[in-house]
Specification:
Shape: globular
Oligomer: single chain
Order of helices and strands: HHHEEHHHHHHHHHHHHHHHHH
Number of strands: 2
Structural class: mainly alpha
Distance between the termini: 5 Å
Number of helices: 20
Helix content: 40-55%
Amino acid sequence: MDPGSDTGLSSDIGEEEAPTARWPVPDYAAPPTGAWDRQRVSTSEHAREPLWPLPEGADTGPGAGHARHGAHAAPPAAEEDPETFTFDRPSWDAPPAAQASGVLPPAEAGGRVPSADAARDTSSSVGSTPGEAQPGPRGRALSRRPVPAWETPPAPPTPGEQQPPPEAPASDGFSYWQRRPAPQDSPSGPFGPSGPSASARPAAAWAGQPAGQGPGHPMASWGSAEPEPEETPAPAPVKRAREPYLDNVKFLLIALVPAGHALVPTLAAHSSRSAYLFIYVFHMPLFVVISGYLSRNFWNSNAKTNKLVDTFLVPYVIVEVGYAVLRFALGHKWSLTIIDPAWLNWYLLALLLWRLSTPVWKRMRYPLPIAVAVYLLAGLSDLPGDFSMDRFFGLMPFFVLGLWLQPRHFEMLNRAWVKILSVGVLAGAAGVAILIAPHVPLEPIYFKDSYAELHLSWWMGMAMRVGLLIAALAVSTAIMALVPRKKTWFTDLGTRTLYCYLLHGIPVMIAKEMGWLSFPWLHGPLGVMAIMSSAFALAIVLCLPETRAVFKWLVEPRLVWLYRRPSGQAKEATT
């Protein structure tokens, strides 16, 4: 991929001469010629001028250095050594011979020392030893700032000792008086995104360079430095393990779905009606709560967003057509209405709408009270079944509750006294269902009918919905407290509950049409146990990995061709 395409700058600077090839480089390995000799490194075309001789009577106090550097006191140009690119500093009071030789007399011999301001202006120190304080005007000592290691001139080599190659000079264009470590190469280069640095130039690029800049020059050692070790690739993100607790809950709930549907032909019996009422009070509300809990981060991933089509819309259309064909094959009139889901298919559309509304609920300050208010007010309207709008509003508080829940709320249920209380709640709920089953209608437990359809006044309807909400939450909490939290034999089955939900209708519908669920012996407690046991076995079969392998194309189609690739993947595909 062109490295300059993202920045809009040319990426072929490596074909031209590298900027650092034209910069003179000092010889740091040469021994100093005197106590006052100092090399200066300049990476600019116009180097700063050195200190110049002070006239007689010139002020050496504070601020004098700024005045001497001003526009009205231009210093004389210093002579430049073409070999080492150094400046010979003349003394202020030394004789011409000392100025010519570059060796200045010490302060004790009558030589003058620059002021502190002048020392600060030149970013250098006066003295023969780094870090040593020198006497200043009127006998005071000039303070010496600590000198970094890269500013200290190298010591003269000992005869016979192997000396390491000198470091390259700073090449950032801003270091005049300091030696900084050479910049490291980066994907966009040390000069910004314009191209590679001189250190990346091949050896052949040094051919034809002037004397002193070929392979024997210190710059050559910079260019032929050992290659940096390859970067260790970042470890792949560890996939977070599934929570066995939620998978256990999901399987137990999905096993109740075919059981509830299979009990419909025997609802005339008291035992069947009581079991049906007990199951429907909590099993779909709790399923919606878990769906909301798992939808908290739904929009943080493109793969999860794609599931809105892969796992909801496409399977919905396929299953809707499949059940229409099955009804027609069993002798019913052909009927197919895509916008009005038939039977169990309502959950796919309702969950799709709930997840589409997730960003709105997460932005609200008080989502739960608002959801409950919408839930109560929705009973005033006769909502149609198109697009599952009646269930969407009827079960909305449970989905919003799932969005609000945190893991710590589930941990609060893992206490001994909570588990003991939950056993009592379930026993009481079962007893209430047995007592009221023959006297109450079953329509309210579907969470979809309006108050008018239930022949209730608005205040009676709202009281009924509040009671259902409390009962559903109480039983759901008790179930969640008693479900095992460790991995069990059915934990893995809870990862494929969608297959059981969408496919269990085929054997249940066939059993209803064939009359297999209407035998007289099924109308009693023994029949309820037989139906629920059979439904439990059916749920196990439909949640097996073999079932998923057969029907994956139907329930989880991979429509990769339907989506646009993320920008990063699209760029990688073009390179």
